[in-house]
Structure prediction request, 892 residues.
Amino acid sequence: MTKWVYRFGDGAAEGHAEMKDLLGGKGAGLAEMSNLGLPVPPGFTITTEVCTYYYARGKSYPAELRKQVGEALAEIEHSCGARFGDPENPLLVSVRSGARVSMPGMMDTVLNLGLNDRVVEGLARQSGDERFAYDSYRRFIQMYGQVVLGIENHFEELLENHKLDKGVSLDTDLSADDWRTLVAGFKDLVAQELGRPFPEEPQEQLWGAIGAVFGSWMNPRAVTYRRLHDIPADWGTAVNVQAMVFGNMGADCATGVAFTRNPSTGADEFYGEYLVNAQGEDVVAGIRTPQHLTIAGKEANKSALPAMEEVMPRVFDELCQVRRVLEDHYRDMQDIEFTVQRGKLWMLQTRSGKRTAQAALKIAVSLVEEDVITREEAIRRIEPASLDQLLHPTLDPKAKTVVLVRGLPASPGAASGEIVFTAEEAESRASRGEAVILVRIETSPEDIHGMHAAKGILTTRGGMTSHAAVVARGMGRPCVAGAGDLRVDYAARTIAARNTVLSAGETITINGSTGEVMVGAVPTIQPGLSRDFATLMEWADAIREMKVRANAETAVDARMARRFGAEGIGLSRTEHMFFQADRIDAMRRVIMAEDETGRRAGLAELLPMQRKDFAEIFRIMKGFPVTIRLLDPPLHEFLPKTEAEFGEMARLTGKDVSATRQRALALHEVNPMLGHRGCRLGITYPEIYEMQAAAIFEAAVLVTKETGEAVEPEIMVPLIATKKEFDILKAIIDRVGSEVMERAGVTLPYLVGTMIELPRAALRAGEIAETAEFFSFGTNDLTQTVFGLSRDDAARFAGAYQRLGIFEHDPFVTLDIAGVGELVRIAAERGRTTRPGLKLGICGEHGGDPASIGFCQAVGLDYVSCSPYRVPIARLAAAQAVLAGEGGDASV
Ligand code: ADP
Ligand code: MG
Ligand code: MG
Prediction:
C-alpha cells in the first residue's frame, strides 16, 4: 500500500530534510525540525505524489488517502488531547501548501480550521478568552472564504467599516462582541456570494482546503511563476495539516519571522520581526508595524517599539538557541517562522533563506571561515549569474540628490525609472525597452510579472519580510519597502510626499541599500568589490582549469577586464576602431579608392591609429595573450545611409554624390551576416589585412621594447570556410611579421589562427589545423549559420519557440549543445588530432554563460572569453564546471 501521509511533531517524524521532493520544502522542514527535537506543533504532510495522482486521475484522490488522513488526524488529537470538531475540547488545524521550492502564487494558508458556531463557543470557554475565540473565527471565515471558496475580499471592507463605526483604528481595539458581529457579517457575505451557507462541518472544511491547495497548483499565478523559474509542472505540491498554536491569545503571545543572518548584508546577526498578540501573516501583511527581535535591530532601524529581546527575554533566548541549532544543522542561513503561545515557543517553518548576492557571498565565505562548509561547497552555493548584481553601477555618492522620502532598504542596488502603478504597465513599457519603477502600496503574487519587468520596486506598506521585499531580493531587483510617508493615489496616478507630487511617467531613483527615494535620475559609478568577493574568486581561481579572457577593444574595457580578473583578451574586434569619428573618413577613402594604390594611401593613414590602439591594449594586457581579429564586417557598414551623409562623404573623398551612392549600392549586403565579409575581404583586398598585420606587429615591437615584457599577439582570421583561404592570408601575415621584426631587429612570439564560425570550417578543422595555430569558436555566427537565423530574428520569436518547447532556451544565450556544441566538439577533436595541444577558446557571447561554460570545460577548451562584466561570472562558473565534473554529474 502506498504511503500518502507522513506525520511529524512530538520530537519525531516519519520524514526528514532530504525528502523535499515527496514532502515539499515546508513538510521536509517541519519533519526535520521535529527530528531535531525542536517544538513543532504536531501534524502531517500529504505528499506531492497525491498532487500528481490528482491531476493524472481527473482530480480524484487515491482510495487509501481518506483512511490515512483520518489516522494521522487522530494522532494529532491524541497528542494534543483535543478533538477535531469537538465543541467541548476542540482541535483546530492549519492547512498549508508546500511545493519543493517556495512558490508564491500557491494557495495561501488557512488557519483555525475546524471552527463553527458551536466549536467557537467551546474554544471561548476552554481558553477563557471570548475575544480570542471570535477573532480566530472571523480570521478563519475570511481566509477560508477567500482562498477556498474564492470569494472576493470584501471582508476587509466590512472590518474597516466596523472599525470606523466604533471609532477605533487597530484590530486589537475590537472586543469579543465586535468580532461576534463581524463573524455574522462575514458569514452573510459568504452566503450571498456563494448562494449557500458557509460550511460548518469540520471534515468538509478540511477536505475543501486540501482540494484548494491541489487546485492552486494550476492557477495562473503559480503557472507564471513556474515558467519564470523553470519549475516543472509535474513536481506537484504537498499539503501540510498541522495543529494550531495561537499567537493571538493575549500579551504573552506573539508571532514572528526571522533570518538566522542578515539577508541583505549576510552579517552574522539575528534578524527578524514579530508582533505581540497576532496571528499568522499579520507580521508581513503590513496591518501593524512589526517590531524588531533584537535590540540591535531595533536601534539600527531607529524603531521606537520594544524588541522581543526586551519584552520576552526568556522566549527570545530560546529562539536564539533554535537559531544556532538550525544553522549548525543545515549549515546555511535559515528563514524561520514561529509563534509564541502563552509564553511557549513553537516553530512553524524553516527553509534556506533568500538572500542578496552580497549576502550570499558573505555567508558562504563566513561559513568556510567558521569551518562549517568547505571552499568547494562555498563555490557551489553561489549562483554565478547573481554576481551580476555586484558588478553593476551604484549611485554616485557625490551626486546631488533630492530625497523625496525614506523607506526600508529591502533589496539592495539602485535603479532609476519612470513611475508606473500596475504590473501590466510595468510589463508593457519594459517590453518597449523603457526603464520603470513599479510603485505599489504593497505587492501581491499577482504583481510578480511586473516586478520582474521593472528596474526597481517601491512600496509604502510592509516590512523587510513583506512580499515585495522577499520577492525583490530573490529576483535581484532593488526595492524600497514600507515608505510610509509616501502617499500613493492609484486613481490620480500620483505619488506625494512633503510638498512634492509626482505623476506616472516621471522619473524617480530608488536606493534599495539605504531606503532612499529620490526625484529624477541619479548618476551612477562603478562599485567597489568586497573582500568576500575577492576571497571567493581566489578560491574559484584555484580550482578552475580553463582560463578566462575578455572580449574588449577599447582601453576602458580592457582595464575593466583586468580589474575583474581577465587573463588576456580573447577577442578584440578591430573594426570598432574604424568607426570612430577621426577614422571613418580614412576608411571611407579606402572604400571609395579606384585601385590598390588609392586604397593603400587611405590605409597608410589608418595604420598609425591602429598601431596606437593595439599598443594601448598590449600595455594594459602586458604579460597576457591578446587575440586580435582582422577586419570582419561587410564594407557597407562603414558607408553613410542618408542623402545628407552621402553629400558630406562625396566632399571628403573628392568623388561626386552619385558615384558615392553607387558604390554604397554595390557594396550593400542583403544579409550582412553572410556575404562579402570576414576573410573574404582579406582575400579580395589583401592590403587591408596587410595594414592591420603591420599595425599589430609594430605595436607589439613598441610595447615589448617599452616594457621589456614580451607581448604575445594572436592574430585571428575571421570567417574561414576553407584551408586555402587561411593559408593565403597566413602567408601575408607571416611575411609582414618578418618584415616588421627584421626592421626592428627583434623576434617576437606570435600565433596566427582562425575563428571557427562556419559549419564547414568546423568539419574541416583537421586540415585547417595543419596551418592554423589556434582556434577560437565564434559561437555567435556559428549559431546563426547552424540555425539559419540571425540574433535579431531570434529575439523576435525565441520566446514563442521556447513556450512551444521548440527551443529549450534561446540558443544565442545558452549554447545549443546538440547542434552548435556538436560542431565545436568535432572541430576540437579533429583540430587536436592534427595538432596536439592546439590552443582552443570560445569568444562568442556563450563564453560568459554559466551553462555553456560547463560545456566548454567538458570539451576541453583552454579558455573562455566574454564581456568584461561577465569575467567574474565566468571564473566562478569555470570552477563549478570542474567541481561538477569531479562529482560525476556533468550535465553534458
Ligand atoms: P507561507 O507559505 O505563505 O509562508 P505558511 O503555511 O507558512 O504560508 O503560513 C502562513 C502563516 O501562518 C505563517 O505566518 C505561519 O507561521 C502561520 N501558521 C501556519 N500554520 C500555523 C499553525 N499551525 N499555527 C499557527 N500559525 C500557523
Ligand atoms: Mg503566504
Ligand atoms: Mg511560511
Summary: Residues 888-892 have pLDDT under 50 and may be disordered.
